Sequence to fold (461 residues):
Amino acid sequence: MATIRKRKLRNGQIVYDIQVYVNGKLKCKSWRQSPTITDKRQAEREVERFANNFEFQERNKLTDFKDKTTFKEFANEWLEDFKRKNSLTSYCRNKRIIQDVNRFIGDKPLTQIQPIHIKSILNYLNDKKVITKTAIIRKPLDDIIKDKKIRQISKDCGFSFTTFLFARKGCPIQWQNAERLAKTLNINIKEYFDVIKNERPYSKGSKDIYKRVINAILNKAVMLELIPNNPAKKVFTKGAISGYDKEKEILTLSETEQFENALLNIHEDNKLREKAAIGLLFYCAMRLGEVAGLEWKDIDFQKHIISIQRSTIYVGSQFGTITKEPKSKTSIRKVPIPTKLYDILQEYQVWYNNERQKLGDVWQDTDRVIPRWNGAIITPSTIRLWLDKLLAENGIRRVSPHSLRHTNITIQLRNGIPPKAVAKIVGHSDPSVTINVYSHYLEEDEQDYVALFDNLFKKKA
Fold:
C-alpha cells in the first residue's frame, strides 16, 4: 500500500509525496495540490486517487515484466552482475554454460519454466560426452612452406608459432588448428594429417557447475519475486546427476623417476626455457598460470625462495591473455627452491640474459621468467605444449601440467612432510583438504608398509 507524506513548500503550495514498494524497490512520485482545491477532504480524496493509480501502474509494470522476461534476458543480467564480483575465468565459464542452457529454455519466459524443462537439461547433461580431436602430421610440410615465413603462417592461422613448430615435429595439435593450417596452406588435411579421436563421458564435477549456475539464476529470480519458486530444485535432487568423479592424473613412482631423468637430461641451449618452465611446475607444484606470471624479481636466489604473486591465464577470445592475482589468498605464498631447480634456473638465467642482449630493441622487457621468444608475455598453453613434447619424446604417459602439481604433493606426503606444511607450500587453504584428497594416491606405499612389518622381527641369518 502506498505511503503518503504531506509537506508545504516555501511559496505555500501543498505537495504530497507518494512512496510505493514494488518488488523490494522504492518507487516515488509527487502530487501538487491545485490552488483551486481549497477543501481539505477534497484534497485528501484527490491525492488518494492519485496514489492508488500510481501504485496500480507500478504493479502492472512488474506483472508485465514478469510475464515477458525470458530466461536468456534475465540470465544475461545475472551474468553481468556476476562479472562485477568474480573473476573473468568464472565469468567466461558461466557465459558458455548459459549459452548451452539457452538452447533449452533461453526463449521461455521465467514464469513459464517448469520442472519438466529443467529435466530436459538434466537428461542432456547425463548423456553428454566430451569428444576431443587431435591431429598428427603424416606427410612433411617442408615443400609447401619453403618459400613462406613460418611466423607469418602461424599468424594467418590464428595460433602460436610454437603450435606450428610442434605440428611439424609430429606432436599432437588440436584438430581445429590442423584445419586452419590446411586452409591457409591450401592443402588436403586428410593427406597431411591423421586424426585421433577420444570420447569420454562428461564428468560429474562439470555437471555440478551447470547445476550451480542454473540454481543461482533461478534463486535470484525468486528473491526478486519474479517467480514464486525455483523449478530446478525439484529436478536437481540428490543422486539426480550421474557420471564419474574425475580422477586426478598423477605420475606413478616409476613414471616420476623417468620424468625427472628426462627433464634433467635437457642440455640444448634452445630448450633451457622449456626446461625451466617444466621444472617450476614439477619441483614447486606451481600452477600453469603462476609459472606464466612469474617475474625475475619474485625469485630470491640468495634465500632460495620463490614468491608467487600473480597468475597469467587465457580467458577466451573476448579477453585474451590476462594477468591477475593468484587463485585465492593462500595462493599468494613463498615456495622453497629445491637444489635441482635452483641449478636449472641459474643455467637458464645466463641463457636468458644472452638472448635479451642479442635481440636488443626487439626484446620486450616484461621481466617474465618464462616469456615468449622476444620477452613478451607468454600464452600458458605454450608451456602445456612443451610438456606434451617432453612426454612424447621420452615415451611417458601424457598428463596435464596440473598433474605435475598433484604429483609433487603426493611426493611430499609420501616423504613425511606434514600436511600443514604441504598445504602452505602449494597454497591450499585447509591442510585437511590436502590429506583427504591426496591420501587416495599413496596406495603404492602400502606394499612398503607390509614389507616393513614382515621384516620387522626377522632374525639376521
Summary: The chain has a mean pLDDT of 85. The chain has four domains: 3-68, 71-128+203-223, 129-201, 253-442. The domain at 253-442 is CATH 1.10.443.10 (hpI Integrase; Chain A).
